[in-house]
Amino acid sequence: xxxxxxxxxxNPNQKPARIFMKDGELPVKVLCGNxxxxxxxxxxxxxxxxxxxxxxxxxxxxxxxxHVSPAGAAIGLxxxxxxxxxxxVGTAELSPLACAYVRARGSDRLxxxxxxxxxxxxxxxxxAKALSKEVSDGVIAPGYTKEALEIxxxxxxxxxxxxxIDENYKPAPIEQKDVFGITFEQGRNEVKIDKSLLEKVVTExxxxxxxxxxxxxxxxxxxxxxxxxxxxxxxGGQTIGVGAGQQSRIHCTRLAGNKADIWFLRQHKKVxxxxxxxxxxxxERDNAIDIYVSDDSDDLLRDGAWQxxxxxxxxxxxxxxxxxxxxxxxxxxxxxDAFFPFSDNIxxxxxxxxxxxxxxxxxxxxxxxxxxxxxxxxxxxFIGTRLFHH
Length: 390
Fold this sequence. Notes:
By secondary structure, the protein is an alpha/beta fold. It folds into three domains: 8-14 and 27-170, 3-Layer(aba) Sandwich (Cytidine Deaminase, domain 2); 192-265 and 326-382, Cytidine Deaminase, domain 2 (3-Layer(aba) Sandwich); 274-313. The chain is 34% helix and 21% strand. It has 13 helices and 15 strands. It has a six-stranded mixed sheet. The protein has a five-stranded mixed sheet with strand order 12-11-13-14-15, sandwiched between helices. Strand 11 (230-235) and strand 12 (238-244) form a beta hairpin.
């Protein structure tokens, strides 16, 4: 098949819409549903991300995409008991691929609502069960087991978007797109991201352990498919905060850092023991947790509000509680798609437990950035490669 019609473009008024190949056959098959224009933008960007993550780390990988940027990405490491509770997986046995998806979805559960999922490996039953419990628009994978497909075909009353991609497909080295009737052309971004990029450590602290190197690789590959400007925090084999599409790098750093803080606070003992009513769904729990850990928690805990989600009124998570908990966080990794122009980014990153940084370098203020890293005990590698994506 060379062409596939879509229900509409970015918006319902943008018709006709299609995807097609100028040469050869489409490398994708729609097994169920009717994916749209943005669905396929998410699917194809997300597929590239997870394919590269698996190649770079050797682990199964997954991503959760929204509006052509990742809300989360992860590799298939086992979950801690705290993460299982935070991600609402209970006592379910999870395959490595399912762990990757649950981690990717759990990176930023609020942003992942209605996501597009991408899987590096054939979707198995365990992963399909995890997907079936979430509000999601679709999934792309190189294949599906019989059991997995049976589960997914029942999702969203049988209209869930299920796409299969040829894992051996390799696109042309030159890519094009049209903007305002004008065709842009460039070579594909084929930069290979691996641990060799982390060899130029420019700070006094030089040791970057293997798990942190993996986290930095996850951050950099995630950034390669995130709308720029972008910054990504990673920890324990997954993203924990992505700041995408900001005009100012410090705003990227703050946005992603705030998301990272929320990710850690979701594992606070007060959050894990919140007394949710049995009839409250996952999205409502996510919204309640987001408000509970924020500065607006009084709005949730006032009379008439907390009864909608909680069986009994929980104790507040005070500012003192949050500061004390976050003060003990270390070992977080941070990637940036372009150089940090000012040291304020480093100062903000340190507040979210960042111990390791990978960024291109090349700023006229590199010395100031390095000095701040040294002051805060952060190891930083200059990778020499910019990762803008538009």
